[in-house]
Amino acid sequence: MRSPKFVAAGAVATVLLVSACSGGGSSGDSGDTDSSTIELFASVATPVAGPPGEDYFWKKLVKDATGVDVKLNFVTEGSQYTPKLQARAAANDLPDLYYSDATTQSQLSSQGLAGDWTPLLDKMPTWVKEHEVDRFKPVGTFDGKLTGLTGRTGYPYKPVVVIRKDWLQKLNLSEPKTLDQYFEVMKAFTERDPDGNGKKDTYGWTGAIKADGSLFGFDPIFGAFDALGLWQQSGDSVEFVGTSDKYRDALAFIDKMNKAGVIDPDWKAQKPEDTAIKYQSGKVGLMQNDWCAALCAGNYSLFIKGNPKGVVEILDPPTGPGGASGSGTYSAAGMMLGISQQAIDAGKGENIAKVLEWMAGPGYIPTVFGEEGKTKGHVKEAGGQIRLNNANTDYASNLQLVAVGIKGTTEELKSRYGGASTTQGDGSSWSANEWLDTMSKYPKKDVTSFSALPPPPVESGADLTRVINEGAFKFASGTQPLSGWGDYVASVKKTGLDAWTQNAQSRLKEVGAVR
After folding, report:
1. Is 252 a domain residue?
2. Is residue 302 domain-shared with residue 425, that is, in the same domain?
3. pTM
4. Cβ atoms within 10 A of the Cβ of 456, count?
């Protein structure tokens, strides 16, 4: 077996966007044949801020530096980004430059709508180097063409287990380490009135159902059974985790939580964002969360407002019966960019490369950190360190291109997160810098290679995803007994799993991961 750059382990591809958003964006203008004008179709990075105005300083900077007029077209509701991009493609009006993902880009490539980045790479050497494009070429290569320009993720690992430390102390409990210990703590948080209000209104865990019907908030449970992601590699073969015994065992444990009443009963109907509300309102003692969403000052303030004596800490995810542990999945592959074939045919390719090269060089700081100044995006400290004006929320609309510009370097991460600090209910303090130094050591599942795997077959993809997600929900919620597992596996195979697995196997050979 060759030494693989990518080892398959992951989940059904999702759009590589920064956040969910709300609203609509400006109209596109990809029909402009002037090669010095390009359209960038993107999703906003900060939902509440909205797109930048017509006086957005960045547009003037890039035009002065490159001679290119970049027309920005933001979609401000994250769930609508891909449908709108697909609608543009169906109308043969694909944007010149756009955010994408492996599933979407595979489809656009097969339709001949996506252009090949390869001839442009030597015109953007700084971008290629800084974003490690060569490392991630297999992710965006379809039918032998590099139609998805992919770089290293600019974001640190963020999914963690969050626990109410003050509840532990009040109930005289030790920090849980094993899955069984986690369960006992969940039970205590549910039954022993940890908030002291005399009511049985707290729970040990919470979760939700995502828009596609899949489970949310249970990754640490799946991690304890080595069942994170949907794909794993065994030797030269790729295997689907969702029909494995260990995946079944994880669902059985969630069902146990459900039957014991230690999990928030609303989990069967609530959305992922509702779990944050439960945490902030002080109703849940343990949960999976984004470490910054839980502890960075802006988000933590909502928690401490309702729980003035509250103390939260991050701890290792539970260790399962076989020694496995992981609080979530992590992929080193980050933003994927597409270029339309129409843009290349119109002679816009070189100008698009010129803009990206500027963004990786002189345009990096204004793209990622905004303008310098106390009322702007960032300030430079005495040692030259850049620090974001985190409290300046009014400026956030001018940082909506951060997702495409970030590189994920240590210096960058400390600049972006290092100013965040929190004072907890017991007077202790917490700094993002402390966690940036240790977060990479937390148990997790590396699914970098999943980005190179194909989506489900077009003819069965929707049905296959539905059958998988509905089955997982039924077993986890106890509405279908585990005795029906064999029938579930058979139905998944019948719906198209074998064809998908075969395609994944072929893809692994194509990118050199297996023989």
Report:
1. yes
2. yes
3. 0.80
4. 22
